[in-house]
Structures are given as C-alpha cells and as structure tokens.
Amino acid sequence: KENMRIQSLLWILHLLNLTEAQDGMNILQHRRLSSVSSDCRSGCATCSPLNGCLTCKSRFFFHLELDGIRQRGTCLTSCPRGHYGRRSPNISTCTRCKADCASCFSEHFCTSCHPGHFLFRGRCENSCPEGLTENAALRECTECPAGCEVCTRRNVCTRCREDLYFLHNQCRLTCPRGFESDVQLMQCIPQNRCEVGEWSHWGSCIRKRRMRGFRKGEQTRTRRILNSLSVHGDPCPHVSEIRKCVIKKRRKKKEIRMQKKGENN
Description:
Elements: H1 2-19, H2 27-34, E1 44-48, E2 52-56, E3 61-67, E4 70-76, E5 83-86, E6 93-96, E7 101-106, E8 109-113, E9 118-120, E10 123-125, E11 132-135, E12 140-143, E13 148-153, E14 156-160, E15 165-167, E16 170-172, E17 179-182, E18 187-190, E19 195-196, E20 216-222, E21 225-227, E22 240-246, H3 253-264
Antiparallel strand pairs: 1-2, 3-4, 5-6, 7-8, 9-10, 11-12, 13-14, 15-16, 17-18, 19-21, 20-22
Protein name: R-spondin Fu-CRD domain-containing protein
Domain R-spondin Fu-CRD: 42-141
Signal peptide: 1-21
C-alpha cells in the first residue's frame, strides 16, 4: 500500500510538472526538463526544478521531504530516523515506522521508542513484563541481575532489594573485607583506618613510688590520633610508651658555687 501511494504521488508530480511547463512546450521538452541535469541532486535519475527528484538511481531510496509547505522528492542512500528502507524491483522507498516507534528496522521491528514506551523484543510497550526494569534513560526493558530492583544495564544496578547492601553498582548480602555496612542507607562504606602522628620527645625522668632504687625512674612519650577508626575497623595502635630511666643526681648549691668560682679565677 505504501508503494502504491508513493507511485501515485509520483504520477501527480509528473502531471504538475506538465501543467506548469511553459506554453508551447511539447512532451519532448518536458522530458528534457525532467532528465538528469546539473540541477538534480545526487542520486536522482530524473528530476524537475519544482518537485525535486522524480526517480532514483539504483540502490537509492526515494523519500518525500518537506520544503516549507511543499513536498519535494529526494534520493537517499539510507532512510532518515523514523523510516525504514523498503526495496522493490520498480522503486525503493523510505516507509514511515509505526506510530509508537522512534526508529525501526522493518515494519514489525522497532529499534528505539518514543518517551513513555519501552523497547522489548522489537516492540514498543507501555510497560515491561515481570522481571524486567523500565529503563527510562534507554527507553527499553532491561534485565537486571539477581537482587537488583532498578538497573541501567545488565550489570549496572542503581537500587537493590531492601535486604541487600549496595556496593559498586552491585547488590550484596554482606559487605566485603575493608567495608562496613550502613544499615540506614543499606550501603557498604569503606572502613576508616586509624592514623596516628609522630612520636613526641621523651619526657623527664620521674621517680615513681612503686619503683625500688633511689635513682630509678620512668619517662613517657606520646603521639596523637589524626584520623579515628570506623565502628568495625581495626583498633588504633598504642599512642603512649613508657621506658625506664636513671634519674640524674642533683648537685648541691655549694658545689655549683665552688665550680663557678674556680672558673672565674
């Protein structure tokens, strides 16, 4: 039916071309006007200035395109979006896809859909069958992996089942090593490792009452926690150290004065 409609349009274009020819022109002059010339677009076998291509060369598709309010014939190597190519011995034409198809391969096989429809097995449906996700970005029914409720591609999940944790576009029953579970967001989040700073200098040697020996003591050094650990992370290393030391004997004031006096002499 589509081919018959286009062939009828071609006859009408020929008749329009004849009626608008100058007075006194005969059929031979009209054929010369409609024959291939430098005014014809690429791919045209015959054309007219008013109506564009009338017939196409081999392997080209005839297509009517709008030129303002007028339709002009064109010859294309491939059909525009929303049309598919139909070949026949007499004339190859570009045929419009079904109304719900944005583009198609043939009359019964869509390759993309308009907004609000989803591609499934060559058809544009209002909704997807059970087990498939309505992908609004791609406008197609997508098969999601196990446990995934919404996905953009087969292995790219964006929302998991309520009892599963989300990590790296996948759904997991438990979080792997190095991650901990966030039960509110139902996500696996990286564990924070405890970071500590540099050791301070050793403090003064201080005698403790519990220590035996008059000159024995202890001195301490510390370091700060720079980044605290997660709830389930590995514990921080120790931040203080104690070591034994020997308390230096205090010199009497008389000895110090005697030493200074000797230095002055």
